Automatic annotation (TrEMBL):
Database matches in Gene3D superfamilies: alpha/beta hydrolase (3.40.50.1820)
Organism lineage string: Eukaryota, Sar, Stramenopiles, Ochrophyta, Bacillariophyta
Region (Disordered): 49-86
Pfam families: Abhydrolase_1 (PF00561)
Domain AB hydrolase-1 per the UniProt entry, residue ranges: 108-216
Full protein name: AB hydrolase-1 domain-containing protein
Coiled coil, from the record: none
Amino acid sequence: MGDAISSLLFQPPPPTRLKESKVIWLTNSHGKRIPSFFVECAVDERSGEGIRAPHPGEASQHYHRGTDSDHYGKGGGCNSVPSSPHIRTPKELEMTVAMGHRLGHGAPTILYSHANAEDLGNIYPWCKFLSKMLGVNIFAYDYTGYGLATDQGPPSEDYCFADITAAYAYLTYVLQIPPSSIVLYGRSLGSGPSCFLAARTAEEGEAVGGLILHAPFLSVYRIVIDSGCTLPGDRFPNVDFAPSIRSPVLLIHGTKDSIVPFNHSERLLETIIEPYRAEPVFIKGMGHNNVHASVRPMFIDRLRRYFDSHVLPNITAKRMLGPSRISLDSRRRSQNLARLVNVDVA
């Protein structure tokens, strides 16, 4: 029964290729090797903060909240930071950390968990677009059994949880990015591992900086069976993880979604503790698989509003505490997490 469910739930596409030099290989707690990549956003060389590109025809806007200053493409003169979104090699990232540049202490970093019939090669253009428009770094990974990890065996719920744990360990332990600067973004299938990690970090006392759920489901069984509880054998019970989450949660869903019913987001919102509910983005007429060009300006504006209201103030507050106080607490937790995984950046 379990194998049958997994074969229906997980449908990896034909693998797409990425330049090997750009791939960061992670090994999860089950010994499975998965690929990932890191897109560093455009930054202001004076503040180290991310810079947002404007919508076509829009006036230039700097990432600083409430200010008008330099725009995307200006600044970035320092060799350690890009002047436009740029995929970083493992060695470049190691060098950045070794030189004392603190990734994630200015611009937030999105940990992106993709949807079902996708892999890293498919989502790279979308990740670069989000980095450019939001002024954020993006770290994306493939699930075991997807993309360049198709030789690691079939995907499973347990592997997905181990995969995102390995990705999070890389961000916090290797790149030394504080949890408060990490925002989880899970689209469809990716909402499962994202909810799992958001709940886990909260239970461990150091919640991530935010959680974005794009077309999420209550649980896999509930997509087809409106059960009143989580049934034996169900997968990715997001509705059970949600009450434990202590990060601001943004829900995004199209009202015409024919794969995951729109009411899953409405009901999931009700299970999140009220102080952590951001204003949801329910897009009239949008389906499941993409964000149409006609709604992208509104989509980006709402994401920016979420970061400005719920994520950036916490990053600024943590930064005011000073690096030693932040890193001491974060390092203890990330070292414990890193014992579960092996990060191969050679």
